[in-house]
Amino acid sequence: MENVLPPAEELRLIDRELVQLDARRAQLMHRRAWLLTALRAAGAGPAPVPARSPGAAAETSPPSAQNILLTLGGILLTIAAVAFTLVSWGHMGIGGRAIVLGAVTVAALGTPLLLLRRKLVSTAESVAALGLVLTVLDAYALKRAVLPGTDAVAYTAVAAGVLAAAWAAYGRAVGRLRLPLPGAVVAGQLPLPLWALSAGGGPEVTAWATLATAGLDVAIALVARRTAVRALAVTGAVVTGGWSLLTGVWLSVSAGSPAASAEPALLLLAAAAVSLGAAWRAPAAAAATATVGGLATVAATGGVLRTLVPADWAVPAYLLCAAALLGAVRVRAPRGVLTGLAAASGLVQLASALWAAPVVLLALTGPAATLEDVWGGPPVQDVVLPGAVTAPVVLAAVAVALWAAPRLVPAAPLPRPTAECAALALTWSAVVAAPVALFLPLGPTLAVQLAATAAALVLAVRPSLPAALLPAAGAAWSPPSPTGPPAGEGHAPDRASDDTAGPGGGTGSPDRTTGGAPATARPDSSRAAVDPVRSVAGTALVCALLSAAGAALLGLATRPATFTALGVLVALGVAAATAARGLVRIVAACAAVVGTTGLVAATAVAAGLPGHRIGLALLAVPAAAALLGARLGRHPVALPVEATAAAVVPIAAALAVPHPPTLALVLALAGVVAAGTAVRTERRPLAGYAAAVLFVAATWVRLAASGVAVPEAYTLPVTVPALAVGFLRRRRDPSASSWVAYGPGLAATLVPSLLAAWGDPDWPRPLLLGLAALGVTLAGARLRLRAPLILGGLTVALVALHELAPYVVQVVDALPRWLPPALAGLLLLAVGATYEQRLRDARRLRETLGRMR
Predict the structure, then answer these.
(1) What's the pTM?
(2) Where are the beta strands (DSSP E) in 485-548?
(3) 8 A C-beta contact, residue 535 and residue 354
(4) Taking Cα atoms as reference points, which of 628, 696, 704 lies closest to residue 667?
(5) DSSP symbol at 522
């Protein structure tokens, strides 16, 4: 252990800390003595702790050796009683049997009274447990000896009821015992269900019996004072009530007529009444219990309505009942009950929306089938989903309910902004799913998709539009300020700071005024007013993008539809980018670039151009984006637009790959665009590198396409002026990197020459290239320039590898098969033994390269 301080200094520090701890302990002990004196003077002193010998322990103490022995003794006595009843019972007469069991049972139940008087609580508990088990054996003995022909299930039901009543009475009489009352609750779960099974009344009778048991459990849980009794009663109510609910739902769903659905509806309504009654009396669990009651009510009423309507309208029937339940929460009731009913309605609505979700998914993914046969006609909708006709109705109804819930329910589970965003998404889903549900042809379907895109973009651009149409929503989005009108009313937004706002187009300016007063008077309120607007704008933007993608894919079905869809989408994107602010403007501008790319490609295909010419035509998009970026300057939209347009270059190059001359032209033109972009100061670093790479790649492709055997004749005229320009750049700016100054020029010759050398079987080219690369490497080492050193060194190594490869192959073929693995093992051992030294060498090499430019 290392000492941070000298030993003498650390020892003094420890002693000082110990002195402080002793002083603090003395202070606390003095305060404790004063508090005890004050409490005794007031007559409320703590109870004296009785002195105990070291080996003594109280009967009521936590689990100890004595309690363990008592428990084991009770278990052994119970086992003995069971063995006696099952094995030795037949060797005694009826009188003897009755006398033995009766005497033992009475003794086992009476002994705890004497033990409790002597404060032997643990012993009394053990003996009482034995007595409870003996009562069960008494019931079994009575069945075997006196009533052997009685139905076993019916007898068990009666016996369980009698035992539950007897244990409850015994537990109430002997109040200090903890086992009888919980045992009575457990035994009370059996009589009614077992009686229903013995009567053979079917699942309906059993469900009513378990529901009655659940009602008794609820009553016990409400009046019980002991935690164990209350917990067992709640568990029993959940199990038996849950069985009744599941049975009722199954019978209701299986009913084929209104008459057949009446009894399950009554069962579910009775379960709902029990749940709501428990929720009314138990505020702690009111929300969860009321939720169960609300779901049971919807299942009961919806099950009856389901039998009165066609099969496709079953889900809307349940949804109608959930909406009615949402309206019923306006009654005067505890807050937990209202929250539970609203949650039940919300769960039904969520399940209904999930049921309709496949129709929306089909509407969004179905247009992708046009990619298999572009301009081959509209896709055939061969998937028929059950209930698809009513899916838009369900989605629209859920949207209305979500919009109305925060205004109707005082304790709505969802906040108002979240509910309104979900309502907006569901409304859009209903519109998108309508063509699939109605089996509309291509033209109307495309029109609906474009209309949905336009509407969603309007809300994304102006998210406060619903506030103008719906005053309640406007109040939610723009709470009034004590110094002026609500945000968004009575003043114009500050356009100068709009580009830094979020999706909703809020200004985000800290000194924005509202009604002539600074908005900083209530910063929290202003932020609360902006966040819902941004959430609505973000939701609308996502919906617009999804429907735009679906419309673009659907438009590929026919040529007119393609130009119509892409033209409208580009116009919408441009309009939104012009009118919006913040993130919405950026996304809309990028979407307009994507649409323009598709429009250019469609125009080229319609003109009959081959694939490589289409790639050449696509370069118009990055060229136009570069001009637009130069016009916008440092505007926040400029970089995303140029980046999106730059993604078109790989697509154009991929289309031109089958025709190398056109590929070289595509790369060269892309390099021209990048070089033009590099003229701007803010784009110079990245665009300059891209231009150099594109020019070099275009040169290589052009040389390969022309079948040039001596590429140096074409690359050296490029390399020499490039190196001259780099030299001048380094003289003017000594801090410039050698990669920027000399890297493009050296790579323009070394890489094509290296490729040609690897395919050249003669020796002059590799020799000359190796010598030239060696000279570049030495120059880089002499001048401490990283780019010549690395490029030249790699070229020398690859040339040497090319020249030595045949001899290495011959040597490897002549060696024994075991020698290469052995050499590899020795190499690994050597590296491992000198691992630290290798790390230091690598670190030293890295530092050396880092000092170069």
Answers:
(1) 0.65
(2) 513-514, 517-518
(3) no
(4) 696
(5) S
